[in-house]
Write a structure and sequence with these properties.
By secondary structure, the protein is an alpha/beta fold. Helix content is 56%, strand content 7%. The chain has 24 helices and ten strands. Helix 1 runs antiparallel to helix 4 and helix 11 crosses helix 16. The N and C termini lie far apart (73 Å).
Length: 619
């Protein structure tokens, strides 16, 4: 990438990078709209939308006992709730609003990158998003990762420069407090930003940043005091904070959600995250590896900005990597959420890479750095291949490349037969072995290609050619790196189906009816039935279900158990059941006690068995 220029008779027109950035943004928008209409709604999305609607229309308040579970900081729900309140509750409002936030994120990254690195690298940052289908698919859903990414992008716009007006410093610190009160896992951002402000912008502006950030951070907490402490208790050791026990769920019950994910799947999740966020993670990693001594930086302000971005980005990556991949930090931990978590802070990783690349790419790395760079390329390439094992097709498996002696002479057999039959390896392990080997050989090919480019044509040091070659390869192959989850979930229009289904539910469910929900993980269809009453813990489905425990205490904390379940079944007027779950309800929903409404024409998902069946208790 760097210094690999093509000789030209005349300079490129100055407007070209702006056009390329605009084309990239349009491509991003087109993909986002397609994903918005074809992606199945998730538990998180349904939760954010319906809780946000409840909090804005006054049905419930954040942290209200016996209300919806406020397991994230309140603004995660309130911000989408504001959009629904203004433009009307529904999946269309939520997803279009979050696409708008995604575009604002790209704009913020582009502005900051252009400030530090010029128009061409700024255009590159737009295309990093445009060529990343999984990031776009994430941005096309109403989930909090998009809110945080947008906030972080605009914090960088406001604060990262040699000089910033005082009002922008104050606004950046205020936004950092907003980020923390949108997702509590963003807690490091506020102190890091304040420290950077003191370092770069001086004592006076640092004090203002501290005052503004602290004011909003404390104001948010005072407004929701004391129940706001429920979002912090999972972070704090019980033995050291017994005074917070009133905000903890008693341990006399066992959560039914207890994921037991083996090491191979945890590795798969880790390298999926690298695949889906290749430039932010690997570009940022090489930015660290190739950082020069302080004296070799071209700009002190650039060094300080890069330091702030690197510390913030990699602290958050390590925190979320530990929480998702390495530990069971809470009952609803989510190993395969790691790639989504990285979406929170993509802007920080991209901007760190851009600034480090522009101001501090070490031109003469030592032998240790050279060896480390080769090692990183091979390990990352092998890991990316490993995480693509589910996409290994039968064509590759059945390639006859393994030599074998037969009665008729020498021949070849398919590699899958050699490994499954000859070595008794399970098919899944065969796929992992093949995909990992393929990734390793691609990485090795990049190393050799970089070596020949260096020998034949480049004046750069070999490590720089290798790093640039690997990043360019990953950038060009970004859509391939996103294979698997980046495909469309459905060919039907999910937004339209939800609107039709929601209109049907609203037409048949009498006002003030008490609805029991077993209609799937995503509570999204209930957004369209504001006249109904619900059992709030069911919004989070089985993730809040416990075995044993005091039912009233669990309900107080917005959780539930079998005793509450039985109680709610006797109280509910309407039962909404997912078709594939109906077998568990067949005896309960007998024709003597319940009538079934006509089955809805539309389904909340294209997955087989996701259709809804609606029953009403007879008088």
């Amino acid at each position: 990438m760097k210094n690999l220029s093509i000789p030209m008779k005349k300079e490129l027109p100055p407007w070209l990078p702006f056009v390329l950035a605009g084309v990239g943004a349009i491509l991003y928008l087109i993909q986002a709209i397609i994903y918005a209409h074809t992606t199945v709604s998730s538990l998180d999305e349904g939760s954010y939308l319906i809780k946000g609607m409840f909090y804005l229309n006054g049905t419930y308040k954040p942290f209200e006992p016996y209300g919806p579970l406020t397991n994230k900081a309140p603004l995660a729900f309130i911000i989408p709730g504001i959009a629904e309140y203004i433009f009307g509750a529904g999946l269309r409002t939520g997803r279009y609003f979050f696409i708008f936030l995604g575009l604002l994120t790209i704009l913020g990254v582009w502005i900051t990158a252009r400030r530090w690195s010029g128009n061409w690298l700024a255009a590159l940052t737009v295309w990093i998003f445009a060529l990343s289908p999984m990031i776009i698919k994430l941005h096309a859903r109403a989930v909090s990762e998009v809110i945080i990414a947008c906030i972080l992008a605009w914090i960088c716009v406001l604060i990262l420069d040699k000089e910033r007006p005082l009002w922008q410093v104050i606004l950046a610190a205020s936004l950092a407090a907003v980020a923390v009160f949108t997702r509590q896992n963003m807690a490091p951002i506020l102190p890091f930003l304040i420290l950077y402000t003191f370092w770069q912008h001086g004592k006076q502006k640092g004090i203002w940043a501290f005052a503004a950030g602290s004011f909003f951070f404390l104001a948010f907490h005072l407004f929701y005091w004391p129940r706001v402490m429920t979002i912090w208790t999972p972070w704090l050791p019980e033995a050291l904070t017994p005074f917070l026990d009133p905000f903890r769920i008693p341990t006399d019950s066992v959560p039914i959600w207890d994921p037991n994910i083996d090491l191979w799947n945890r590795l798969n999740s880790f390298f999926q995250g690298i695949r889906y966020h290749f430039i932010p993670l690997i570009g940022g990693l090489f930015g660290l590896v190739l950082l020069p001594p302080r004296a070799d930086w071209k700009s002190v302000p650039a060094m300080r900005a890069a330091f702030f971005l690197a510390v913030s980005y990699f602290t958050l990556v390590l925190m979320h990597g530990w929480a998702a991949v390495a530990s069971q930090y809470e009952s609803y931990s989510c190993v395969f959420c790691f790639s989504n978590y990285l979406g929170f802070f993509d802007p920080l990783g991209i901007l760190f890479f851009v600034i480090a690349f522009s101001y501090a790419w070490n031109q003469n790395p030592n032998r240790v750095v050279q060896i480390l760079s080769i090692f990183v390329v091979l390990i990352v390439a092998t890991g990316i291949g490993f995480s693509l094992f589910e996409q290994v097709g039968t064509g590759l498996l059945n390639v006859p490349i393994v030599p074998r002696l037969r009665s008729g002479g020498f021949g070849f057999i398919a590699i899958v037969d050699a490994l499954t039959q000859g070595l008794d390896m399970p098919l899944a392990l065969v796929k992992r072995w093949i995909s990992s080997s393929l990734g390793f050989f691609i990485g090795l090919a990049v190393v050799f290609a970089a070596f020949f480019i260096w020998k034949k044509r480049s004046t750069q040091q070999f490590t720089l050619v290798l790093v640039n070659s690997f990043l360019v390869t990953g950038f060009i192959l970004s859509p391939i790196l996103h294979l698997g989850e980046s495909k469309r979930d459905c060919e039907t229009d999910i937004i339209r189906d939800h609107e039709n289904l929601g209109a049907y539910l609203a037409s048949i469910i009498p006002p003030d009816s008490l609805v029991y929900w077993d209609g799937g993980n995503a509570y999204t269809p209930m957004i369209y039935v504001p006249q109904a009453r619900i059992f709030p813990p069911q919004i989070n489905d089985g993730y809040t279900f416990h075995i044993g425990g005091d039912p009233d205490v669990l309900y107080y904390f917005s959780h539930w158990n079998a005793e509450l379940d039985q109680r709610w079944r006797t109280e509910a007027d309407i039962f909404i059941i997912e078709a594939k779950r109906y077998a568990n309800w067949k005896d309960f929903l007998n024709p003597q006690d319940f009538q079934e409404f006509a089955k809805p024409v539309d389904s909340p998902s294209c997955i087989e068995g996701a259709e809804l069946r609606i029953f009403q208790r007879l008088p």
